[in-house]
Amino acid sequence: MTTAPDLAAVAALVRDVAEQVHLPLFGLAIEHEEKSPGELVSRVDREAELLLTDGLRQIAPTIPVVGEEAAAHDAELLGLLQSAEAVWLVDPLDGTAQFLAASPDHAIMVALVVRGETVAAVVHQPQHGRTYSAESGAGTWRDGHRLHRPSADSSNLAGLRGAVLRRFMDEEALAIVNRHEAAFGDLTPNSTCAGVEYPRLVEGEADFLLFWRTLPWDHAPGALLLSEAGGAALRLDGSTYRPADHESGLVAAADRRTATTVLSGLGLYRAGSR
Questions:
Q1: Which residue range forms the structural domain that includes residue 49?
Q2: pTM for the model
Q3: Are 179 and 251 found together in one domain?
Q4: What is the separation of C-alpha 36 from the centre of its chain, rounded to a whole number of angstroms?
Q5: 97 and 170 fall within a common domain
Q6: Same domain, 131 and 242
Q7: Domain boundary among 113, 147, 181
């Protein structure tokens, strides 16, 4: 049985890494490169991941750490999500492109997955000075204030505010969304990064988000923030998101009914597909 680590210590670690790495280098011309087409990695990503990994090992020595950059070099690390009882997921800089462009919309994210379920998460936005955290059964918090996500009125698609991240969509899915998007009144074509968009959803600034690529370090933290605040993160078949799943497509919404309504409205709902 894994003992739950001190989430306050994890949040303190994340903020300390931001003080050491992210804040001093923000707005500067720093080394970066493409690790895959259109995907950037920078000095900040690498340095922050090393510090976060070392810090998490001190907090919970028996729990392995799967960082985004480490997994980019060794994809087999992702197998720990299914084989290990507990795993830390680390995104040392969510929104690298935004950071390099001197946009404040980026984040540091950490999540703890136990037996396939996300049980704790921290999302810190260094430039905005906000830290979000959640524990399974204990709610979602921003800097000491508990957050509750109200349900949305899903009876009218035109009244829902949302975004669709189309960048990684296959041609078939993109064509389906393009055919159905006119039913929505405020459907923005893109979003910034998960570490900014999930908190926006929790805070009531949007009603839903549709993502296509669902890497676990991108979505495990935010999905827990959302679910503990009263929202829902669902796969295209309506099942609850789990970080070890490798399916494409994920809708995050104010509540489960809104999530399924959005999937149906976009022509993507695949009930019973599994």
A1: 7-147
A2: 0.94
A3: yes
A4: 20
A5: no
A6: no
A7: 147
C-beta of residue 40 within 8 angstroms of C-beta of residue 97: yes
Q: Scan for tokens 């720093």, then name that residue.
A: 30
Long-range CB contacts for residues 33-37, cutoff 8 Å, separation at least 24: 35/72, 36/72
Count up the domains in the chain and report the number: 2
**Helix, strand, coil % over all residues of the chain, rounded to 5:** 40, 25, 35
> What DSSP assignment string belongs to 1-31?
-PPPP-HHHHHHHHHHHIIIIIHHHTTS---
Pairing state between β 186-188 and 161-164? parallel
Q: Helix (H) and strand (E) counts for the chain? A: 10, 14
pLDDT digits (tens, 9 = 90+) for 86-137: 999 999 999 999 999 999 999 999 999 999 999 999 999 999 999 999 999 9
* Dist CA 15 CA 56 (whole Å): 13
The DSSP letter of residue 138 is T
